[in-house]
């Protein structure tokens, strides 16, 4: 069972240590939705928090979830010092860190500092591995440092029906094995003005596959089941 006890928002009052938790899962497993739900639950308890994200699918400083809820968020740019950010506020009880896999490793260290030196609860959400099934450096550091790690598996299925575990990058209809670790998917509907892409499969998008089909690169009936209109990234 995945431990989602943090969603119940137990307050830090009462002397317990602050915690660093990392919730990970493939694309489309509902990470952003859970992040926003957790923020709502904590805020309702009167706790003060900041929501952080990076490369959100909306392209702006907010978290958007596929089921339509969203929230203002601070964009974690490369040079941003998260300790300084938090210390600029009067009082912060917790951080919700969406897309934490894309932060840099130094920023993950800063999250641990906030937990240990400032008593702030940090709830991080993100992918564990990239399109090659290799760990993002920030995700690796979170695995190493977190008090608790939980895999989220909210019914993401491969085309074959097995549990979706790994993110595949598809370029021109073919699964990519090499390339930059982070490439934002083309959204189809939001192609840059003046781009002359022919209709169809030229762009980059992502799909979740089971381990077997990620390893052998079998996309099943790619054209029928892919969703190029759904922006995503890994
Ligand atoms: Zn499969």
Automatic annotation (TrEMBL):
The keyword ATP-binding applies. It comes from the Bacteria. Keywords: ATP-binding, DNA synthesis, Kinase, Nucleotide-binding, Transferase. Pfam families: TK. Its EC number is 2.7.1.21. It catalyses: thymidine + ATP = dTMP + ADP + H(+). GO terms for molecular function: thymidine kinase activity. Belongs to the thymidine kinase family. This is Thymidine kinase.
